Amino acid sequence: MGYLKYIKALYAKPKANLGDIYRERLVELRKSDTIEKLEHPTRMDKARTYGYKAKKGFLIARVKVRRGGKMRPHFMGGRKTKQYRRRKVLEKNYAWIAEEKAARKYKNCEVLGSYWIAKDGINYWFEVVLGDRNVLKTYNGYKHWIAKTPGKVFRGVTSSNKV
């Protein structure tokens, strides 16, 4: 097996396989900001799956997303049928929300994909692979969809929101 398959096997059961490393990483992640730009990905196997290469134009952002249901703002006020339900039912998963957060922060970049890093009782952490449109439109193979179709994540075309 190549080294990427070993990394993939470790993350199949992170608490059992990684143990103390996983717990130490959770302590660091809790102290971190909501969106952070990283030098290199934590999971190289997943980043490569979504098109990451260690060259100019690609970047990784770690995004923290709160777990739990979403509540409707201003629940009371009027007798409307939709307001009987207090919880807001979103059709988005946590990865999609993380991709949207990263796309809003890095406006000149296009979301290529995202993958799970860790979770605890309060948060999920995802790493989002982003490609800079201005740099990648000169590379062969990328110029067609990155330059011509911006905002993939907001239209629901990335891998996390294709259900």
Descriptive labels:
163 residues, Ribosomal protein L15e, 4-stranded antiparallel beta sheet, two-stranded antiparallel sheet, alpha+beta
Structural overview:
- The protein has helices at 3-10, 14-17, 20-31, 44-49, 94-105, 133-136, 143-148, 152-155; strands at residues 35-38, 58-66, 70-71, 87-88, 109-119, 123-132.
- The protein is of the alpha+beta class.
- The chain is globular.
- It has a four-stranded antiparallel sheet with strand order 1-2-6-5.
- The protein has one domain: Ribosomal protein L15e, CATH 3.40.1120.10.
Percent helix among the residues?
25-40%
Which CATH class?
Alpha Beta
CATH H-tier superfamily: Ribosomal protein L15
Count of structural domains: 1
> CA-to-CA gap between the ends?
31 Å
Overall number of strands: 6
Report the total helices. Answer: 8
